[in-house]
Specification:
Layout lengths: L1 H62 L10 H31 L2 H5 L6 H15 L10 H9 L2 H5 L8 H30 L1
């Protein structure tokens, strides 16, 4: 009888340890699955924000397609304002494609694209935000400030410079673009954090 009890206890300890290991592995797999879902959600949020930013920046450009600046502002307008915004719009689209490929796990396409990591895309998004408007008002030399002070100020309007009638709503498209880019940056930062945990 004693032998039977000892064997039963030993078997219980053996199976108990095995069950503990299985439970531990199950917890690891579940946390990995949760982490993957969380990182995918951050990618999806950043993609959504980038799409909104692309939509608003497109509206900004559409509103200005017929606008003709004063001759003295022509170079400033075409290179420092429209040129920069068109460039940002193109890169936002490339960013959306990168995120799509990242969600689908298409590593081959990512290796052959201009954007190769979420960290790189986040840095680019932060740069675009500052090109539109810098947070630091002392160093701000962004597109919005150039429009508001160098081209569309009340002083310029009184002196006869061309200013769109709906300049405030046009500038709001850029402010909204910037807002959505900030959301995308936040989501990309959180995505990168989930990869390091």
């Amino acid at each position: 009888m004693e032998i039977y009890i000892n064997i039963k206890i030993d078997i219980k300890y053996i199976f108990g340890d095995a069950m503990g290991i299985i439970d531990s592995l199950k917890t690891v797999f579940e946390s990995s699955k949760d982490k993957a879902e969380e990182s995918d959600n951050y990618l999806k949020l950043s993609k959504s924000s980038m799409k909104q930013a692309h939509s608003h920046i497109t509206e900004f450009l559409d509103k200005l397609k017929d606008f003709q600046p004063a001759r003295r502002h022509h170079e400033l307008y075409t290179t420092e304002i429209i040129g920069r915004i068109v460039n940002i719009k193109e890169w936002i689209f490339k960013g959306i494609l990168f995120i799509d490929r990242k969600i689908k796990g298409d590593e081959f396409a990512i290796k052959n694209s201009n954007i190769r990591s979420a960290g790189q895309l986040k840095d680019m998004v932060d740069m675009w935000i500052n090109i539109i408007r810098d947070e630091n008002s002392e160093t701000d030399n962004g597109v919005i400030k150039k429009l508001q002070t160098e081209m569309w100020s009340e002083e310029r309007k009184l002196r006869g410079f061309p200013v769109p009638k709906d300049k405030d709503s046009i500038i709001k498209f850029l402010d909204d673009t910037r807002k959505y880019l900030k959301e995308a940056s936040f989501s990309l930062e959180n995505y990168n954090l989930t990869l390091t945990l």
